[in-house]
Amino acid sequence: MGTAEHQRIVLSGISPLNRGVERVCYVHPLEPELVIKVPLQVDKKKCGANEEELKGYHLLVKDKVKLDFISHCHGYVDTDMGQGLLCDCIRDADGEVSRTIWDIVIHQDDCDVNYIVEIAEKLCHTLKSNKVWIFDLNLKNIALQRKANGSYKPYIIDLKGRAVRTEFIPITRYIPYLSMKKLERRCNQLIDRIAEFRRRRFELQHHFGNE
């Protein structure tokens, strides 16, 4: 990574890569191997989702687990749209930005659902066997990097689920048994939704458009 993070990055006029409830994601205009996540909220000096994701990433790194299945975070950068969080941009073998499971299952006609489920099951096995407490396993948070031979490698591209906001007292962060039970539930939900959402793809296309 170069020195672009030390200067103000201009994102105005650039089409976003994707848009969420709290943040917009852009490909870094100077370093295409990175993305910048900037807040949608009016107070752009502070973005809870970015803080939560960076905190979740630091927790993962602290656990000293081999993390070759996530988009790594690289700290903050100043942009004309507020403070942004720098993360890896996952790309296919041909250089194109990798699509998420949601993109493939909902919008791609020639989708091998059984293969996508198999990939997701292997990712879930990796998480559970290594006790990696990432809980926000929805279809939009997992990119599938297409290799030259056509196979996929999954990457989790949103890590904020580790720093739990939905629990008043985040007990699942400190009690391994409860963490594993929660992870198992989220993994089962992910697997079930792949097939379910594929069946409902036209309904979901109509509701969400190209989101």
Describe this structure in words.
The chain is α+β, with helices and mostly antiparallel strands. The chain has two domains: 4-88, 2-Layer Sandwich (Phosphorylase Kinase, domain 1), CATH 3.30.200.20; 99-206, Transferase(Phosphotransferase), domain 1 (Orthogonal Bundle), CATH 1.10.510. Helices cover 34% and strands 18% of the residues. It contains five helices and eight strands. It has a five-stranded antiparallel β-sheet, covered by helices on one side. β7 and β8 (152-156) form a beta hairpin. The longest helix is centred in the C-terminal third of the chain and has 24 residues, at 176-199. It is globular and about 45 Å long. Residues 1-5 have low confidence and may be disordered.
Q: What's the layout of helices and strands?
A:
Elements: E1 18-19, E2 23-27, E3 34-39, H1 48-62, E4 73-79, E5 82-88, E6 99-100, H2 101-107, H3 113-129, E7 142-146, E8 152-156, H4 176-199, H5 201-208
Antiparallel strand pairs: 1-2, 2-3, 3-5, 4-5, 6-7, 7-8
Properties at a glance:
single chain; 2 domains; Phosphorylase Kinase, domain 1; three-stranded antiparallel sheet; disordered N terminus; alpha+beta; 18% strand; 211 residues; Transferase(Phosphotransferase), domain 1
